[in-house]
Each structure stands twice: as C-alpha cells, then as structure tokens.
C-alpha cells in the first residue's frame, strides 16, 4: 500500500503544479492545487536599462541570485545585440552566485564564478563575501534580485560600506487573495494532510507580514509542511514551524518520495 493513499496534499506551486500533481497521484495521493506563487512579470525596460548600465559602468562584483533573473538579463542583452559584450564583461567581473538554476546558466555561458553558495542560500553567500571583503576598500556591486528581499539584500551590503546597483529584471505579482484565503482555511481546518511549497515566495504569500498563529498551530499539530529545498524550508522554519520535511536532493520527484516515505513510516509504527 502506498503511503499517500487517502492523503490530500496541497500544492502551492504554479508552474510545477501539474508535474507535482501527477507524482502525487502515482503514489495514490490526492493533489489539491492552490497556486499562490503569483504571476511572474518580466521587466523588459528595466532589464534593458540594467544591461546598458552594467556595460557602461565599472563594477567589482556581479551577484546573481536566481536563474530566471540571470537568463532574463542575458536574453535582453541578446535582443539588444549586446550578447557578446555582456558575456565578455561578465568574464572580466568577479562573480558570486546562488542556486542550481543559476549555476546551470553559468555553465552554459562558460563563466567562472569566484564564489558559489555552498547550500544554495543567500545567507551563506553573503557570509562568504563578507569574509572576502574584510579589510578591503568598498566594492561596487551589481546585484541581480527580484521583488522579495531585494532591498534587504541591498541594505546588508550597503551597511558594510559597499555601493550597490540593484537589478530587478522580473517581479512576482500578488496571487489571487481568494486562492490564498482558501489555502489558509484548509490549513486551519486541517482538511489537508500536507502542503508542498516550492519557493520562498509561496511561503511569504501565505504568511504575509503579520503573525499567523492559527496557521502555525495547524502545521505544528497535524498538517505537514513540505519544502523542495533548503531556502524554502528555512522560510517555513522562520515562521515557527517545528517540522519541515525536505528531500535530500532538491528535486520534485525526490520531494514526493520523501512525503510517501514519511507517511509509510508513520503507518508502520
């Protein structure tokens, strides 16, 4: 008997919702989709300005925080007829990156970053950079981010004395409040056995800026919080959730297998 038999699993993702749902159904579970990621909006005009400024100004470092952002800027440079100049400038700028998708872009472009976040988090990358910057003159930094913690990251670097150019080639719109409230109600009522989160954005969208004791209590009672990777898991844990299940490998399939194994072990005890 599959461990997900009779289990209702909430899916907070948008793009990967269908893939995750198929994986849940293969394990005899029932997926319930709540797309709370919010629609992704590419900022073409901003990207073009970012490329122009990057090529026209002098930067000591370029920090790339997401694969989507890195690719959006590269695609924009290509559209502008500046791809070769852009890649050449990247090759002559010290690079620091985080995330597996960003690293895939790095390899495709044959770039050689100085630092790569060891655990995929920005906190790890910032700590590494802080050690490198120690006892050095202020650096001029090109920081690619998006509308989640972007100003926080910029502020951290600026408080260390550095000059930061913030590049936001894309943003996420707010999700449908009816969908968000529907998921909240399902969590509080504990009508779902588990919720799958695939990004930090989804966690922020469900918890917002205010304390959500009813949600936290439900997660700490019976609703299982599941994260695809460490960044998402950290976002959930920071809300006060005591148990967050995550796979050893940050893959959708591994995540669903981890859930199935979790419930199978519970059934066997």
From TrEMBL:
InterPro entries: 4pyrrol_syn_uPrphyn_synt_sf, 4pyrrol_synth_uPrphyn_synth, UROS/Hem4. One of its GO terms (biological process) is uroporphyrinogen III biosynthetic process. It holds the Pfam family HEM4. Residues 19-256 form the Tetrapyrrole biosynthesis uroporphyrinogen III synthase domain. One of its GO terms (molecular function) is uroporphyrinogen-III synthase activity. This is Uroporphyrinogen-III synthase.
